[in-house]
Write a structure and sequence with these properties.
Thioredoxin_domain; 6% strand; Serine Threonine Protein Phosphatase 5, Tetratricopeptide repeat; signal; 4-stranded mixed β-sheet; Thioredoxin domain-containing protein
Length: 412
């Protein structure tokens, strides 16, 4: 017996060590105590702002944070804290004790997307933010940027505001703002960088990103440079499968079309197109106009017009319309419209979505449309295909739909 106990005593520290791999997060504490510990140990503070429903948050907690190399880096450099931003009936007392602090973080530090990771200096001052997760090495690199004043997001923002004539700071700020999903600052910093360094010198592999970021309106310097150098811009954007016209048309859509969609206005798209073509003949707006029309008529619940808009959108370049989009268009008609012409169009879109991807959800859409169109036998055949390809999680719903089809009951 004594020998067994001794063996266990030897094994237990090994087990404990194994369990401590990964990031060591603080527990049973307060924000004041976290800051005091960070100051005493001269470490930065890392705060994981997460929610219980966020998939990427769960992935970071289950897969990235427990890794030994991640733990080694974060435990060496940070005092680490997890902060749950939502409230659920299953929250324990420790989570509840942080409700007020979580609410303050959301307000004071503009936490609006999840996961958001905040980095504070040893003195408790916010210096950096990371939006979204990532794999271990990439995430460590992002956090490393939060330790260096040259790359800290908040520090760069302050420098940007204090040094309006510094092109290098504007450049760094534009890059940091992009990573932090701060689109307003990203555009502002990129525009300033373009103004400071001169436009056409940015027609390079690195510089093109600043032109894209800085094209905030048809009057911006970046817009003019892109417009006057479309062939070169197309060449530089080729790797990203984009073209100069994509950038220019997006700017004009934001500037001239989106305002028309507000306040539930009735939009005359034909007149809009004529006006834009007259004033901006260098830009082909057909694609983006067709895309916006599908959204507009969807929101208006004008299904015949929606059908025409989708057909127009597909006709422009059906290779650019993803199977997922085709399925969504088709399902929208299935759920909302009984018009035979709309149903036939939706069947065509649904069938096209299956040419590249026989996803069970796409098969289910096609079967439901066949059923709603009156072709019960074919509908049952295709629904059985959906069930055969479905995972266990979705299979139950598909089987229930099949049962309704066999009984002649509505599935919409």
């Amino acid at each position: 017996m004594k020998k067994l106990i001794l063996t266990l005593l030897i094994i237990l520290p090994i087990l404990t060590f194994a369990q401590e791999k990964g990031i060591a997060f603080e527990h049973q504490t307060t924000w004041a105590k976290v800051k005091a510990k960070a100051k005493a140990e001269n470490k930065h503070i890392f705060v994981d702002c997460f929610t219980t429903w966020c998939g990427p948050c769960k992935y970071m907690s289950s897969t990235i944070f427990p890794q030994e190399k991640v733990g080694d880096f974060f435990n060496k450099n940070f005092v680490n804290l997890k902060l749950q931003m939502d409230q659920t009936k299953d929250d324990n007392e420790e989570v509840k004790s942080w409700y007020d602090e979580a609410s303050r973080f959301a307000t004071d530090y503009a936490v609006r997307a999840y996961p958001t990771f905040l980095i504070f200096s040893p003195d408790g001052e916010l210096v950096h933010r990371i939006i979204g997760g990532g794999e271990a090495d990439d995430f460590i690199a992002k956090a490393q940027a939060g330790l260096d004043p040259e790359t800290q997001y908040i520090t760069l923002v302050k420098q940007f505001e204090k040094n309006p004539q510094d092109a290098e700071i504007a450049k760094k700020t534009a890059k940091a703002a992009k990573l932090a999903y701060d689109q307003d600052l990203e555009k502002k910093a990129a525009a300033r960088y373009i103004d400071l360094v001169g436009g056409e010198t940015l027609l390079t592999t690195e510089g093109i990103q600043f032109l894209v970021q800085g094209a905030t309106s048809s009057k911006s310097a970046a817009y003019g440079i892109i417009k006057n150098n479309t062939a070169k811009v197309d060449e530089l954007l080729q790797a990203k499968n984009r073209k100069a016209n994509d950038i220019l048309s997006s700017v004009l859509a934001t500037e001239l079309i989106v305002p028309q969609l507000k306040d539930n206005n009735n939009v005359d798209f034909a007149a809009l197109k004529r006006d834009i073509e007259k004033n901006h003949p260098e830009v082909n707006m057909s694609g983006i106009l067709a895309n916006i029309k599908t959204q507009y008529y969807f929101n208006k619940k004008n299904w015949p017009a929606f059908k025409d808009a989708v057909n127009e959108f597909i006709a422009l370049d059906d290779n650019k319309v993803s199977p997922m989009s085709l399925n969504q268009f088709a399902w929208s008609v299935f759920e909302n419209c009984d018009d035979p012409a709309c149903l036939q169009a939706a069947l065509d879109w649904s069938k096209k979505s299956l040419e590249k991807n026989e996803d069970p959800a796409f098969l289910d859409t096609y079967a439901n449309l066949l059923y709603k169109s009156g072709d019960k036998d074919k509908a049952i055949e295709w629904q059985e295909k959906a069930i055969a390809k479905a995972n266990e999680k979705d299979k139950e719903a598909y089987v229930a739909t099949l049962d309704k089809m066999k009984k002649g009951e509505q599935t919409w």
